[in-house]
Structures are given as C-alpha cells and as structure tokens.
Amino acid sequence: MPSTKSSFDSEEHLDVLVLGAGVAGVNAAYLVRSQLPSATFAVLEGRDTIGGTWKFWKYPGFRCDSAMSSYAFTWYPWKHEQQVVPGGRIGEYVDEAVDAVGLRKDIRLGHKVNGLDWRSDEARWAVEVQVKGEEKPKIITARWVISCMGYYTYDKALPATIPGIDNFGGEVIHPQFWPEDASCEGKKVIVVGSGSTAMTIFPAIADTCSQVTLLQRSPSYVASIPSQSRLSVLHRFLPALLASRIIRFVGLLTEYLFVAFLRGYPTAAKKALRKGVVARLGADYPVDTHFKPRYNPWQQRMILSKDGELFDALSKPNTEIVTDTIQTVDKTGVLTSSGRHLDADMIITATGLFVDPTGSSRISMDGVPKSLSNRFARRGTMLEGIPNFGFITGFLVGSYTPGCNALTQNFLKIMKHAEDTGAVTATPEMPAEEKKGVETKSFMSMTSTYFVEAQDRLPVVTGKGVWHGRENLWKDTKVNWFGSMTEGMRYDKAVKGASRKKAE
C-alpha cells in the first residue's frame, strides 16, 4: 500500500497501525495482512501479553457469556464441544490463533499509546508510544489507524458510591482489580451489583464462603444458557472445520432470533423469562422481587447464566439475594434502607466499568485536541471529521467478536476504495443541511449506569442512513456486501506535503 515518508527521519513509518492486541486487534491484524498484503503494519499493545480482556480479569468465575463457536475468529474456528468456557481458556485460544497464523511477530507488547495527532500536511497519523523500559516516548507514523482498544479502561473502574464504605473493617475488592492472593474461603461475603460480573462471582464463590449475599439495588433479567451446544455432537461425525462452521452459523442465527424476540415482543419476552426463572426456583420463590426489572429486555445487558448456575447457587443454604439499597456501611457489614443489617468480612463492589473507548490516549489534529463526544459515527466504524481512523467495537447485544469483524471489514473497504481511486485521505462528513434539527441517539444505547455515565465521552448516531448506528451482524454484513463507500464520505486525492511514496 503506498504511503508517505515523514520529514522526521528519526521516526518509524508504517502504512497501518492497529491499536490493541485483544480479540478485535488480533482480528484486525489478520484481516490487514490477508487483504492488504503489501501494507506495512504493526499492532501496538500497552500490556505485556496478547488477549486483552481475557488476560486481564482474574475474579472467580470469569468467563464469556457467548458461545465460543460464535465468539471465535472466522479464520480460526473453535473446534471443541464445550461452548461456554472460562476466561483464561479464551486467552489461551487467542494465543493459539496468533501462533497458528504467524501474527506474533507483528505484535509489539509493552507499547502504550499516549496519543495520536493527525498531520494534515503529511496526511498521516503521528502516534506517540511509550515503550516499556525506555525513558522517552517514540513516534510511529501511519496513513491509517485502526483503534481496537475496547470500550472500557483497564486502569480505572466506575467509582462505587457506597455510603460509609470507608468505615468497613474487612476487605473491599473491586473485581477489576482482583488481588491474586484474595480468598473468600470461610468468609461472609457481600457481592454488590446486579450485572454480569456480580452474577458470575456469586455462584463461583458459593461453595467456599460461609455466607454469600448478592445485594442488588434493582433486579436484572436472567436467563440460563447451556455450556454445551446440542450440535457439538457434529464434531464426532464431521470434519472439525465443517462442524465448527455449521455450529457457528446456527449459533449466530439463534442469537439473532433470541434478541429479536426479546426486543420486538417485550411483553411476551418478560413472561417467557419469568417462566424460566420460576421453573428453576419454584413458584413460591419471590421471583418478582428479585428478577423483575423496571425496563424491557436488552435495554440493559441481560444476564446469561451458564447452565443456570446462579439459580443452583441460590438453592444452597449459605446463599441469599437481597434487593434493596444501601443506607450505610459500618465496621461489620451493610445496613440496608429497609433496616436490615448484613454481616460481612468482605465486600465485593461489582458496580460497573469506566467506559472510554480511547482509554487514556489523546486524539488531536494538527495539535488541536479532538473529542469523541457528540461526534457522528458513520456505520459505527468511522467518526465524522476524523480522517483515516477506524473505530472498532463489538456488539453489546450478542457476541462481541463478529461485530468487531464486521466493522473492520467495512473500514478495510474504505481503505481499498481510497487506494483504488488514488485518494490520500478518507473522512466521514455529514452535510450541514443534514445536521440541522437532527435528533441524536447514543452510540451505545444501553441504559446501564456505567453506559449512561459515559455519554459525554461517546459518539452519537441519528437513526438514519449511514449515520443510523448498528443493530445486528446480519445488517452489518449486508452493508459490507452492498453498502456505498462514498455516501457520507469525502475522499481527498491531494494533500500539501503528502506523497504516495512507499513507507520506509
């Protein structure tokens, strides 16, 4: 891929930079190498390991709530019968995939991105990188940047506003920073939260705690999912690749239909979900108190409990779920607003993530800082006014990796269109008349507390045209096959100071 050499001789110059070596970044790297074989590229990862999320979290029970046949890379299918697996196993899978296709040499660990600055006179991104062990940061320039840094920060969690938490005499642990030597054995533990993390930790520690209480401010929808697909039997009769592809297709289709039913028919969906909980806990259990949310299904992320482990845990004599707010925390536990005191030796605050898709990285153009806030997202992939920059995230509803793959494919089509037409830059652009009176929607439409809190850090969509926002994998795939590469885009063929010389 043609590119330009900067006037800064001490800098390294590449065609493409991928930021992040989690599942999105690894997938992007594979696609860049396979679809743009002449491009020079590298993957920058701030941590010392590949795998992103799956090498970061350490709390008990950590896992993915998607089936691996759906979550896995299309180019390295999951060939095992077990579908819902621990997070550590997914980290191993990512390593296996990287080595299987020879990507490890292109991934630079310990390369933390401090900021990105677009140089208009060169039509290149200058990326400031702090390399572990080096005193001064370095600059790497690239014509194209694909940001795959996820949607939350590693080093910061959503602050848990819990009255009196500093008064507590025991341990307080946030799952994001789980200590390696932490132990729940024989302790009275309160897990605060109603999201996936809390609902996963609760059953994982139930057998070792003397008492474990799940304390939630309000209920969430919970559904059981099997850890093994019935179609996994195909692995015994068919070639591994064929079996994996069949299971993946059926899994993604089932996932789509499940979400479509829940969102399209909320009244029927609520009844079906309630019926499922009653079937596990019994008609006498206070299901409506603990499992009847105020919102419709998938307005917040649904809890998918592996083999119904949450319900199994609730049948144990040392477990309890309490739906109440916290009045205060004292030295020995939690006093709820209803006046009940819950004794504890440990409090686990599973209260949410700090959502920020760029992490601590600064984005600027010619030295002028640029914010993602209220910036329109084209096809969920590129940001209005930001040239040659791919913004890759997965689906919040459904398996994450297929969404990342769809967006990366879309961005690569933009890149190839620019190459084919001789353009140096590709910039999303919304006409001024189209902006007049336009109603905006959140880029991430979930109403969970940590997403609502993050709205001023996120782009927006309009619900129309190329600015519509994302819905599901099937529509994203249709866009990749048939969507316009020019609608809502400006391609510039000449930029002062920029050439089309091969990167050096």
TrEMBL record:
Bilayer-crossing regions: none
Cofactor: FAD
Entry keyword Oxidoreductase: yes
GO MF, one annotated term: NADP binding
Keywords, alphabetical: FAD, Flavoprotein, Monooxygenase, Oxidoreductase
Keyword Flavoprotein: yes
Database matches in PANTHER family: MONOOXYGENASE, PUTATIVE (AFU_ORTHOLOGUE AFUA_8G02570)-RELATED
Protein name: Monooxygenase
Source organism of the structure: Dioszegia hungarica
